[in-house]
Amino acid sequence: MTILQLQYTSCEIGLSGHSGFQFCAMSPGVAQDVLREVEQLTAYEPPDNLRAAAGTATGEHPVNLIHTRSEYTGGAIIARVVFTGLDFSNRSGNYFAHTLLIDAPGDDLGDVLPVELWAAPFWQAAQGPATDLPPLQARPSPGPVTPGLISDLLAGTPGHVRPLESLLAAVDDAMGGGRRVLLVGEDSTAVCHWVAAACYLLGPALARRLTFATYSHDPRRCLTHVVGTVADATTVRLDAAAFRAFDLTAGTIPEEIPASPAAALLARTGIAGSAGLWQTAASLGPLPESLAECFPVLASAALVLDQPLGEQEADVAIGWLAASADQVSAEHQASAVRAVLRQIRGDLPVRRQRELVGLAVSADAARSRGADTLATEVECAFAADFFARLDRGLPPGTWAGYRTDQGRKAVADGCAQRLPG
Predict the structure, then answer these.
(1) Cα separation, 170 vs 164, whole angstroms
(2) Each residue of 14-38: b (16+ CB within 10 Å) or e?
(3) Are 265 and 303 in contact (CB under 8 A)?
(4) Residues 142, 112: contact at Cβ < 8 Å?
(5) Does the reported pTM lie above 0.85?
(6) In terms of pLDDT, which residue wins out, 232 or 156?
(7) What percent of the chain is predicted at pLDDT more than 70?
(8) What's the rounded Cα separation, in Å, for the pair 186 and 62?
């Protein structure tokens, strides 16, 4: 475990040999290039409306929790920057930046996501007596941000599903090289909560790749995927070509966000259900590195969990499961098949009907619970749908053909009942 620490502020005695803004304490072994990088990343200016109070730190000053990747080491940089008011010489505009350098975030942070370090207890906001900071010897403890907290906050926000879907789609596009996302909040806490919502819906692997800053006075200088600022900053009127801006105070969302079926599915599932959805998706097979590419396996996981799906979502899920049957467990195959029977069996095209029967046959063979037990159930259900449509005077649809004795018998019996004696 290697988590190095750095602290930066305006002080009389630090590590530079002169007074002023400088690193005042750090762990040994940090390269000069990384020091310059951290110094630039953590620079802080208060919002314009608070400049008159630049000599006094107040609870109104936004906090910047930043998570990004070092250009020099490739490791994670997580920092918390707070405004502190006057420095040692009574000059206004001082701030304190406490930074962590993490070589292997997946190992060193464990299950803790970077956004969960918001207001964590280990952060320091003032210079200490020592200039040597030992590396952290234990995983940092998270703060108050949890899935339960964010889920409860969203539940109290009417109509949150649509903006959440749009935010997730915009974040996915930004992570793929598209326009960055700007969140304009009443304060940095509100920004953090929406960043956390996106992280929880993205799942652990993608959430660790998402870079963000909860406050920047000039977002143009911040190159993270998501940049936060506050409503009273004057720099929020930015070129639309650079950002997709979400005004959390006015409830406005940008137009022309690329459609994302995965974002729609996850936003509808919600934070409480998304953790289980990602866990099930991971059990089905390796997860791709972008949210868009994850959609087929996410839709398949939703089907396994019997979540309500639209026709197109179910179509994609059945196709993916059929193509990946050799890596999906029999129990998961059976769960998906039964979910289709409960939800949308009557609207399946012939290709998907055949694939569903194939999944049922595969599940039957692997589970050794009698020959074609589930396949028979599927084919008998298709036969019942066929005759039900005929009885209602509707077109019967295309017939997939039957491969089990019971399926063929169901068709024969249905025809016998409806043909003249």
Answers:
(1) 10
(2) bbeeeeebbbbbbbeebeeebbebb
(3) no
(4) yes
(5) yes
(6) 156
(7) 86
(8) 10
